[in-house]
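tool_call: predict_structure(chain=1)
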Amino acid sequence: MIDSDLLHGLGYEDLRSAGKESIALEIMGAIGACRERIETLEAGCESFEELERRYHAEGKEDFDLDDRCLAWRAAREQLDYWRKQLKKLRVDVA
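tool_result:
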């Protein structure tokens, strides 16, 4: 069993709060990774909306455009997912 003095010394009330803080840090890391992927996709490129419009307007196969559009959409969806999870965790903590 983890010593409560150790937890208090680290700034936690109990093991549950320490676990939640650890999970929150993991989620924030995932959010940061999603933001980095999005910034990389944005670099020297049009906006996601423009890219998606071009993707739907193309009349021919463009694998590079397909890959970029799908990667960008996935990164945005993952970012949204992790933000919602962090919000749920913080609401549960309160």
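agent: The chain has a mean pLDDT of 85. Proceeding to next step.
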